[in-house]
Design a protein that fits this description.
50% strand, four-stranded antiparallel beta sheet, mainly beta, seven-stranded mixed beta sheet, single chain
């Protein structure tokens, strides 16, 4: 079993930056694709970004492309999401997940508990 724990969320003003981390425990996730999702109040959970088990290729939702960067450190069992130029519409609970393939998130193997990101205008 794998436990995913996100951290790094918080409150920032528009234009600011945050770096989210997701640490895996229980077993290594080096063979899994890792992804980030988010869910805003009253909205469905949506895909944000994903990275293959090798650290590339990467994949981004159009809404964050050019502003967010996903990376991973397999030795540390950790995946990161660097978020720059944040906008109020980025406000959501951010979740990390592990999947078989970075292009297939229909049934992720594991989910984290989420970390809140709030961006004020």
């Amino acid at each position: 079993q794998v436990q995913l724990v996100e951290s790094g969320g918080g409150s920032v003003q528009a234009g600011g930056s945050l770096r989210l981390s997701c640490v895996a425990s229980g077993r290594t996730v080096s063979s899994y694709a890792m992804g980030w999702f988010r869910q805003a109040p009253g909205k469905e959970r949506e895909f944000v970004s994903a990275i293959s088990w090798m650290g590339g290729p990467t994949y981004y939702a159009d809404s964050v492309k050019g502003r967010f960067t996903i990376s991973r450190d397999n030795a540390a069992n950790t995946v990161y999401l660097q978020m720059n130029s944040l906008k109020p519409e980025d406000t959501a609970v951010y979740y990390c997940a592990a999947s078989r393939d970075y292009t297939d998130w229909s049934q992720p193997y594991y989910w984290g508990q989420g970390t809140q990101v709030t961006v004020s205008s």
